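User: My collaborator sent over this chain with a note saying "see what the structure looks like." That's all I know about it. Can you take a look?
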Amino acid sequence: MPEISRFYGIVIKMFFDDHHPPHFHSLYGGHEALIAISTLTVIAGNLPPRAMGLVIEWATLHQDALQADWERAKALKPLDKIDPLP
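Assistant: Without extra context I'll predict from the sequence alone. Here is the result:
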C-alpha cells in the first residue's frame, strides 16, 4: 500500500485496486481509519480526536489530489505524493 503523505506522525496510504467507495487509509499510533474521499467521513476504524482533526483538515485541502490518486490506483498506475500539512 503506497504511502502518499506523512505529517505529525500520521501516515496516509492508498491501496491499488481497492474497494469502493473511493477512500484513503490514515494510520496513527496503532490506530487506522478509512476516510471516504467525497464526504470525508469515516467508513471504518478510528483515530484519536486530535489526529482525526488533522487528517480531515489535510484531506479538505487535498480532496482533488486524493480523487486523482484514487483514479491512478484503480488503473494500477503510480500514485502522486501529496504535500503534508505545514
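A starting point for your reply to your collaborator: The longest strand covers residues 23-28.
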